[in-house]
Write a structure and sequence with these properties.
This protein has 261 residues and is α/β, with parallel strands linked by helices. Helix content is 39%, strand content 19%. It has one domain (11-257): NAD(P)-binding Rossmann-like Domain (Rossmann fold, 3-Layer(aba) Sandwich). Helix 1 packs across helix 7 and helix 4 (128-156) runs parallel beside helix 5.
């Protein structure tokens, strides 16, 4: 998807069979916080919300990574505020949230994308460091960022929180325990926050992607058919919907987005 195709306009873009179709979304004057913004999915989500008129706080570990990924597609300025933060560190997350609030004065939508995947050995051979890393990266980060941003939403009695879990969260598999448990925690955390915030006009949902079509996926699965995987842009479209007023009656849901994977 080129910068020209994602010019700053109040529409969401769907790429279907090589053609571009427009779905009307308008996030003008809304502030969207996106974690993991320098990754493939974070990049696609940021472009989609930017195209729909949003103001973005794009968060990743290194500010320079954000600049490299976005380049001139989303220039830093009125509509884009890059923020560097270690999402596994409490002080860093607090500073991130404070800087976003100082810049924009409110947050409308939080998109928790930061996370990662690794296979591993059987549980009996799994180092504690691997277990802790997966739980911290995929679950602790969602907990800490949500905890920091929710008070801003409570001030205005409105908001949307969208987190990325995984299809793997639905059932255990061999040699994936730390990853599966961490993504399962995102589902349960989503449901708990939805129950807590349902009377405050704050919707909380998560997405369960199948295999996402990324360079890493293609490298690790050279004989697979990537046309069956989920394009990052397709996941971004679901995020746009969940962040919109059209999803106002959806909360506590885990939305499967599998493609044909």
């Amino acid at each position: 998807m080129t910068a020209a195709e994602y010019s700053h306009r109040k529409v969401g873009i769907v790429n279907t069979n090589g053609t571009l179709e427009r779905i009307m979304f308008d996030f003008s004057d809304q502030v969207i916080v996106i974690t993991g913004a320098a990754g493939n999915l974070g990049h696609a989500a940021a472009l989609a919300f930017y195209a729909a008129g949003a103001k973005l706080a794009v968060v990743d570990r290194q500010r320079k990574d954000i600049r490299v990924v976005f380049g001139d597609e989303i220039p830093e300025g009125e509509y884009c505020f890059p923020v560097a933060a270690d999402l596994m560190d409490e002080d860093s997350v607090s500073e991130m949230a404070a800087s976003i609030y100082e810049r924009f004065g409110h947050v409308d939508v939080l998109v928790n994308i930061a996370g990662g995947f690794t296979m591993g050995p059987p549980v009996s051979e799994t180092p504690l460091s691997t277990w802790e890393f997966m739980l911290n990266l995929n679950a602790r980060s969602v907990f800490m960022v949500s905890r920091a941003i929710i008070p801003f939403m409570l001030q205005r009695n409105k908001g949307k929180i969208i987190s990325v879990s995984a299809r793997a969260a639905l059932a255990g598999r061999a040699n994936m325990a730390p990853y599966i448990v961490s993504k399962s925690a995102v589902v349960r955390l989503t449901e708990s926050m939805a129950a807590e915030l349902q009377d405050h006009n704050i919707n909380v949902n998560c997405i369960l992607p199948g295999t996402i079509d990324t360079p890493r996926s293609r490298e690790e699965n050279p004989t697979a058919d990537p046309s069956k995987w989920v394009p990052p842009e397709a996941l971004a479209d679901v995020m746009l919907f969940l962040a919109s007023s059209g999803a106002r009656a959806i909360s506590g849901a885990s939305i499967p987005v599998y493609g044909r994977s």
